Amino acid sequence: MKNRIIISAIIVTGLSIFTSCNKLTESPQGTLTTGNYYKTQADAISAVTAVYSTLSTDINNDFPIYGRNLNLLIDNTSDNQVYSPSNTNPDVRALGTATYVSTNDRVHKIYAQHYWGINAANIAIDEIPTIPSAQFVNPAHSAANLIREARFIRALYYFNLVRMYGNVPLVIHSASNLAQASKLVSRTPKDSVYAQIIADLDSATLLPATYTGADVGRVTSGAAHALLGKVYVTLRDWPDAVTELRKAITPVTVSGGTALAGNGTYGYDLFPNFNSIFLPGSKNGIEHIFSAQFNGSVGGFTSTNTLSSFTWSNAAYTADIPADSSIVVKLFTVSDQRRTATFYDSLNNASTSSKVIWPFFNFLKFVDQSGGFTSTLSNQGANAKVNFPIIRYADVLLLYAEALNELYGGPTAEAYAAANLVRARAYVNPAAYIFKTNNYSSYNYTGSGNYSNHNADLSGLSQLQFRDSVFTERRREFIQESQRWFDLVRRAPDAEYSGPGSYYLISVHAMLGNPKSAAALKDTLFPIPQTEINLYGTENANFQQNPGW
Amino acid sequence: MKRILVLIIIGLAPYFVFAQNNDQVQNIRQNNISLSGKVFDAKFKTPLNGAVIHIKGTTHQVVTNNKGEFYFLTGQKLPVTYEINYVGYQSREIYATTSNIQIALTENASNLNDVVVVGYGTQRRKDVTGSVASVPKENLNQVSSSFDNLLQGAVAGVTVTQSSAQPGSTASIRIRGGNSLSFGNDPLYVIDGFIYYNDNSLTNLSPAAGTAVTGTSTNALSTINPSDIESIDVLKDASATAIYGSRGANGVVIVTTKKGTKGTSNISYSTSFGTQDVTKKVGILNGPQWASYFDDLYSATPSIQAGLASAKKVVDTLGAIGTSGDWVGAAIRTGSTQNHQLSIYGGDEKSRYSISGNYFGQNGTLLGTDFNRFSARVNYERNVSNKIKVSTNIFGSNSVEDKLSGSAFNSINFANSFSSLYLNNPLQLIKNADGSFNTTYINSIVTSTYNTINGQVFADNPVYDIASTINQSKITRVLANFAVEYKILDDLIFKTTFGADILNTDLNFYAPSYTAAGNNSGTITGSGSVGVINSQSWLNENILTWDHTFKINHFLNVLGGYTTQYQKVKNTFVAGQSFPSDATTYNDMWAASANKVIGSGESQQTRNSWLGRASYSYNHLYNFTITGRFDGSSVLGANNKWGFFPSAGFSWNASQEKFLKKYDKTVSNLKLRITAGSVGNSNIPAYSSLATLNPYSVYLGNPLTGLSGLAPSQPENSNLTWETTTQYDAGVDAGFLKNRINLTADVYYKKTSNLLVSGSGLVPLSSGYTTVSENIGTLENKGLELTLSTENIKTKEFSWKSTILYSTNANKVLSLGPSKSFQPIAPTGQVSPVIVEVGLPVSTFWGYKTAGLLTAADISSGTPLLTGVSQQVGDRKYLHAAGISGAAITTTDKQNLGSAQPKFTASFSNTFNYKNFDFSFLFQGSFGNKIFNLLEQQLEKTTTTANVSAALLDRFDAVKNPNGKFPKVTNAPVMQVQDTYIEDGSYIRLKNITLGYNFPIGISKKILAKQIRLYVSAQNLLTITKYTGQDPEVNYYDQNNLQQGIDLGVYPNAKTFLAGLNITF
Q: pTM here?
């Protein structure tokens, strides 16, 4: 009996030892973890690739930042746009009527998406320096350059955030565990956020000027200068703005004799055909300084610009529509080629050779025209591979004109030249104008500063008139390019728009039918998402909601 | 004699011991006359046919004949000790000194002497301290594709909600409410000792893994053949489930399959055939009604109208259009089921065996949907020696489910194309004149007006899609275990078990080029995918059991052991589009020329456990159980791999006390139970605590090239731990009037702490993480369960038994850490209809309250209007939430609109026996739960292409219908979550009704059968509900805990009529 007990004890112990080889530590075979990553140059490149990805994808397959979401906050709230009857999300509609509240899901989403991108950048910036330098054998992607690319995108995101929300938590290191991620970071004063943006962009100015082949589309030093110039314009730091913008401006003599005092070596120029900016065939061309890259949904990668997605079988209205054709479309004269590149109210159905006519205008810029229009129109745009220009040369020229006008107390010859270049490209020779097509037999602007028709040139304007004129030109130029709300709220009070926020308020209240009658001064900043206010506690002195919300 | 048949009819045991001793009767002269006797019912004095008589200490045994008589042929001499066993009766041992002995057996009127299956062993029901319930045999006899459906209305405290009526689809099963927000709430299954958690991810790939495979989830439990099941026991409270430690929180369902018994040898065949018809369709507009609606919508769209030279009225030219198409009707058919089971079972002194084969087939009520399963089982047990017993259970099955496939519609991903049948334009033709399916808009009016604008000529034909799209899940499963029991001492047994569960799922999908999914508006030609999921799990358990009786009345049962379980799941996936031919379907993925997707993944889990239990009973009067399990799990954070789960229970058989014994005619049984304990829920996916990297893709370069980068998808959480549920239970088991009335009542309170909250608002968004999983919440469930079983009439020829179950469970979120509430992520373009908020039940619907339509008086008096949408006379009037005022109704006015959780569930079952007939029925219902009728919401969305709800016949029109109850049509519909779509989901259902007939023995014998039973049965014959949707038992989001009670037009429920035959040779 004793023996039996001993034997059984041995059996139990033996089996237990045999089976306790089953270890409880996890070592995933199909999933990488941060612990065993960031060891090689390939890992560093991949970390930065993930940062780029945040421009054009969303973690939950929602609209990416530059694939429509930013537009919903920046264009849909502006005087260019109202909600479309096809919008099914009440929160999207609320943005179009300036009746959104702090629980608005788009306000929450864009905030979350920006920090998602910032976190991806922070990880790259934190981890790449830990990789031994001997690993970086491919000089095309040095550790320093990879970090600079990440810093540029981080700066871009903070620049958006600080303009949309004001003071925002400045997080420049990634949280490696849940305890760190849970830390409540106070709203950082705008000045500090801008200081970080400038530091990040400064570092990015050391990046290569151009890329070829597989690297086209990455951040260039030119992009860093251009964005830095835009940051200084927003900060109203005119001397620095002029200095930085000049670094992106290609020195040319504009027809009429004025030389642009640029010292940029990037060869940036305007496309003679405005429509080329949005054609998949001319991606990353001379006018594109930095873009979010879209290639549709091919090979399992979801990279779709859903900005002008529409399903014609379900709604006569597209996803986003101009505020009111009678005002927004009429901003353009018939000889402005931007009109037909920005709007359509009819399209030729290639498969039936018949013209499909809408009784109203729709936005055209981000409709994928590369495949032509056929009978299978129903998902046109839903799989668009149109890049989103985050900063392009026309923006640089107009910012330069604006900065010179402010710096010198009125438009200089160079300011006129920069603004007129953008206008000259827009206004085609009336003789070459063919009704409602984008096929022009000749363009007024032929590149390198040359154009012959000076009918659209500005001249003899006061500082105020010139300022007005530049802002209006920006409106025409950048419809649906996530610029208008930023422009509306950044313009300082002046003789014409006295009082804080009045450029924004007067403009949106002037819309036909006054769809944004609810717009008030508080709307010159978006509310911090309510979930954040709840999390920090309403009593938290370092994390208060924006005024009026 | 009849008494016996009645017993058979009750079906207390599906296989019966029948006399096979004709030879013995004929050879009576050679019999050992001294070893003979008669066995009869103690009360009715009726002979018992088939009782097994065994001479103790020998291998000799015989079975009684139909007169209850037995004779031994052996040379064994008196005196002997007989052991008499008969199913449904108390076993006896009789010391016989004389021949022709008369043996009276007493029926097991109460279950008191029954043995109850508990984890890692059995216990006398008398001594049990925990809350354990068995599924009645009547429920197990129902025909069903999957045994989890048999739990419906069978056990108090168990709520079963099928996700869809799709053959082979899943059900959500809750024992005493849901304890978890983020992860598994389904119970743990123990199938012949093998521990299995039914995780949908083992048989389904999430849609994110590919582009195509969607539709209702395939249920891995449907691989198990319900006909093989002998018993299902449900462990509910902590005293019972703590032996499963970290996996016990959701309750445990112990499934035991049929084993052979000694002294028998039987072959039985059972079969059933049935037909199925859809119970209900929801109302939509027919062609002429839709035409009229279209004209209204058309004139409500001035911008469209203005662009057209002359607006023809569709309704005016209906003659040219012809009749309308009933899309739902065209896709529905009469379904059928068939079941064939052949079983051979028996045993002798040393071995017991049971071998069975089964085929179950079901053709669904929708075109192209069916379910087929082939399965086989061998259960074998042998006493190798006095000390060693070996046993094995081997089960294999192959099931094929052809299910509905997904189809995107109206920017919401309808993962079930059934709803698109409702939404399809009724003016479109379903079939062309030549009988082929129509895929063009051929209606001239629709084409010339609407389609001039949209330019579309290709029309989706969902009936064609359903009929031609392949969406198939094939599951092959082998579940086997092998056990050795070694009797170290008479009362000390060591048992070691090795088991393996291999579950392979093939997912095949192909949408031909002429379907909506395979055409994608002309961009592709065919869409296909192939996926394989391979799950392997093995389990080793080593248990030492000491069962000892001290001084006659101190009963002690102690067990301890060590177990380890390992599971590895692997999946691979290939999808592609644009094939040169539809002929090769999914079998030639290489030929895909567009949108190729490949993927694979793996996960591994390990669990190591030490477990122990001590049960002590003083004279079956005072019973104590102490249980503990020390569990280690790989899925938890590095700091929290191990945890301890203890429980204690006490029960008191008060009726055995002297002071109550004198009332035993009235109070025949009274037992009080009280238990407490803590159990866990660790149904957490592997690698949840690690900072895993996810791929993020982007295009760069000229030409653009896809690149994949990696970034963390979650921060490391080394403190990740199990959710711990502390449960208190107090219960009473009472029997009255000689146990003709039995009542079991339990009250319980469960508090789940360390609740894993996986949502937004837990960490600042500035961390870069939107949702994280953190053990920070608490929630509670409390409830009451009643089971009342009565034997209303009990005579020789007629008996009537009934059972009433009632259970209520109240669920409440107590804390969510730093956040007060969160809403689950909704599909793009939709707003989440549910909220998880402190103080409210999980799955609370959250939306606007409304009050009819806006009148001109409302507008002029400045009634608050909803922002963001046009609000005019004839639009829906929204109300402020309490405490909010102002001219605008905003999202802050959303409020609690009720919960998907029922206030109580109940069932009422009855069994009647009259002579050779038996009759039973089961009513089952749920009360006080709300349903979000998402299908109705989508059907009230007015567009120029989709069909709409029949409710819109009563739409407001200032001229034609000024008192309309539904809003006027608009070209810009925004569908809100509002109280008009939140409906009362209460129902009472006649779940099952069965009439059976057992042929008299005489007739059976003519075909050499021991038993023949014929029955007819109907399922879901009647449903009483106020719910306006198809069926109130609906759960579109399947195992998702946060989105229960949402109806997006799932596969419709069906009435089933069955006829069956059981025959035993």
A: 0.84
In chain A, the residue whose alpha carbon lies closest to the alpha carbon of B409 is A314
Residue B587 contacts residue B574 (beta carbons within 8 Å): no
Distance CA B517, CA B458 (A): 13
* Three-state secondary-structure class, residue B949: strand
At a CB cut-off of 8 Å and minimum separation 6, what does A528 contact?
Answer: A102, A111, A165, A187, A543, A545, A546, A549
Residue B200, Cβ neighbours under 10 Å: how many? 18
A522: its two tokens: 């508080």
Distance from CA of B487 to the nearest CA of A (A): 10
In chain B, what residues touch A61 (CB-CB under 8 Å)? 828
pLDDT digits (tens, 9 = 90+) for B894-913: 999 999 999 999 999 999 99
pLDDT in tens, B907-937: 999 999 998 899 999 999 999 999 999 889 9
Helix (H) or strand (E) holding A158: helix A143-165
Q: Give the pLDDT score at B24.
A: 40
Residues in Cβ contact with B700 at an 8 Å cutoff, skipping those fewer than 6 apart: A49, A52, A214, A215, A216, A217, A218, A293, B707
**Three-state SS at B691:** coil
**What does residue B834 show for φ and ψ, rounded to 5 degrees?**
-120, 160
CA distance A436 to A364: 12
Nearest to B195 by CA among B235, B135, B142: B235
From B303, B717, B764, residue closest to A169, measured CB to CB: B764
**Alpha-carbon dihedral of residues B178, B179, B182, B185, nearest 10 degrees?**
-50
Cα B741-B747-B749 angle, rounded to 5 deg: 165
Q: Mention every residue, 6+ apart, whose C-beta is less than 8 A from residue A536.
A: A184, A542, A543, B764
pLDDT tens for each residue of B276-318? 999 888 999 888 888 788 778 777 655 444 444 344 555 555 5
DSSP-derived letter for residue B91 is -
**CB proximity list for A379: less than 8 A, separation 6 or greater:** A309, A311, B520, B521, B523
Degrees, nearest 5: CA angle B456-A71-B412? 45
Mutual angle of helices A393-407 and A238-248, in 10-degree steps: 150
Helix H or strand E segment including B532? strand B527-550
Among the listed residues B116, B144, B114, the one whose alpha carbon sits nearest the alpha carbon of residue B129: B116
Are A36 and B712 within 8 A, CB to CB? no
ipTM above 0.95, yes or no: no
Supply the DSSP symbol for B437.
B
A317: DSSP letter? S
Residues in chain A: 549
- Does B3 have pLDDT greater than 70? no
pLDDT along chain A (549 residues), means of 10: 64 60 81 89 96 91 90 94 79 87 91 96 96 93 97 98 97 91 94 98 96 94 98 97 97 92 94 91 94 76 70 57 80 87 76 65 82 50 78 98 97 96 86 52 86 91 96 96 96 92 94 88 95 88 92
Task: For residue range B263-279, list pLDDT tens digits in order.
Answer: 778 899 999 999 999 98
In our burial notation (b when 16+ CB lie closer than 10 A, e otherwise), range B88-109 reads bbbebebebeeeebebbbebbb
DSSP H stretches of helix in B300-349: 302-306, 318-321, 327-331
Distance from CA of A546 to the nearest CA of B (A): 17
Look-up of token digits 């983020």: B182
Pairs of CB atoms within 8 A across A/B: 397
Q: Around Cβ B712, how many Cβ atoms within 10 Å?
A: 25
**Does the pLDDT of residue B1005 top 80, yes or no?**
no
- Which residue among B304, B595, B698 places its CB closest to the CB of A53? B698
Locate the chain A residue with the closest alpha carbon to B713. Answer: A59
